[in-house]
Amino acid sequence: MGMMKKATLLLAALTLTASLALAGCSRNTDNGGTGNNGQSGKEGNAATETDSGFAFGETPIEFSFYGHYDWYTMNSWGEDAATGWIKENKKVNVTSIQSGGNAQQKLSTMIASKTLPDVIWLDRTSDVERLREAGMLVPFDDWLDKYPNMKEWVGESTINLLRSPDGKIYQFPNWYTTQPNGNSGYVVNKRIYEELGSPKLETFDDLYEYLKRVKDTYDSSVVPYDPGIDGQGIELMVSGFANDFPTTYVSMRGVPEGDKLTSLFANPVYRETMQYANKLFSEKLITQDALTQTEDQVKERIYSDRVAVYAAASPTETASRAHSMVKEADPNHPGFMMVWPLHNDGVDKNKVWPGDWGQLGWNVSVITTNHENPEGIFAFLDWYTGEEGQRTIFWGPEGLYWEGTNEDGGPIFNDKYFAEADKVSELMNTTNNFQWNGNTVFIDTRKSAIEMQLPEEQRNWETRWQSEITWKTQFNSTPFINMAPPSDSDEGIIQQKINDIYLETFSKVLYAKSADEVISVLDKAEADAQNAGYEKLLAFQTKAWHENLQRMSAE
User: Fold this and answer.
1) Whole-prediction pTM value?
2) 294-316: per-residue pLDDT in tens?
3) Is 544 helix (H, G, I), strand (E, B) or coil?
4) Which residues contact 388 (CB under 8 A, 6 or more apart)?
5) Torsions phi, psi of 360, nearest 5?
6) Nearest one of 448, 428, 544, 434 to 76, comparing CA atoms
7) SS (H, E, C) 365-402
8) What SS3 state is found at 129?
């Protein structure tokens, strides 16, 4: 998949609140989300003119777009084959507003100066509600039946999870889904694996013995276990120490027991995992810069064939590139493979969940009151998330690399698609930057069907392992979404303290001198967390969890 789950960026609550206060009283409320527009239809080809004279696909529409992330830089709209086709044939032009590497300051400045962008692309946090409460966002409710794609593809239960306290919808989700997706798991270097006799690699005991052999055989020339950035490949091990104990519980710093959430630090499964991780780290079977290494450092090791086992929250993109690079350098190199998630003896391998997926997907787009025709923007977003829009932005426009569609709406590739693989990859890497409301089910289903028709040597590495392993081993975490309290609330302040305690504890656990010291470190973390108000935060999250369950069951 394209951009998935980048590092979350939260606005500074006090700065944003002050900015909203400055701008709230002078907002433009004339359009009120009731602008008129033509119906796009399932494929977005119909263009019924309305009273306003606007018809999507015929009447030009232009809007500004701001990606609220330090790392995000939008490419120029219309300069690649896909967005160029949309600009010409759907009469849509998008102008970018860049964060300049400081998204927090940029958005606060725009709010304070009353120069809001037309569309803001951001994480699903309390910041969306702050903008809504200040009257700066336009609801979509009146358009859900007129433009059918969001309602059809996102689905009623997911739409209900997006509703704000006033009962309305202001957020258009990105990479939403009704079926498993995700890439978390374990990647193995097949060259090293085969040179060591292809031993059984199913349990954590197997992993420990294998990593020792790697270290003894290759010494410092190979990293036995690389956990990616921020120790992700260490955290996901928790999923293998008990049945149905997903990594999700680590992320939310709470473990369900009965009908409430309880402490992560005191949980025996988490404690056993940390003792195992400490053992690997102490014996230098895990890279010693596991908590400080950059993404570029991780890639450099893997691309240069110097990692035996690589595990992370989303390792497939890097591993796929490494697979191609090592085989290009040496055609006899067997490349990389994924293995079924590792687990303890006695744990059911089919109840191990190293990653998760949620119906709401990743982030959202919101339409502000700044634009004179917000319905026109929604009409575009609705078309964009439908079949024609997704085919165009993912594989390019019809006539370039594909001609016509199959019975499932997937593109039928032409000879040029296979003859110009590098150019296809270049286009897809470019349009990845524009995938703001990706339709996971449509893309993944069609992508898999296409790949399975190809000879094995032509299949995409990522798609193969997603189909065989990762999509089958990701946990549905939808009941646990939207549980973060407002950052300036009592619970929000407590949450920040708990996160700080967690990060400090994680580091101390790895560097502990013994298994007993690991327990002492976790005991101290538990005491500090309770003193910081942990129970109050867990109660808040428990309430949010049950509210999610109610929304999901609502008709």
Assistant:
1) 0.78
2) 999 999 999 999 999 999 999 99
3) helix
4) 43, 44, 45
5) -80, -10
6) 434
7) EEEECCCCCHHHHHHHHHHHCCHHHHHHHHHCCCCCCE
8) helix
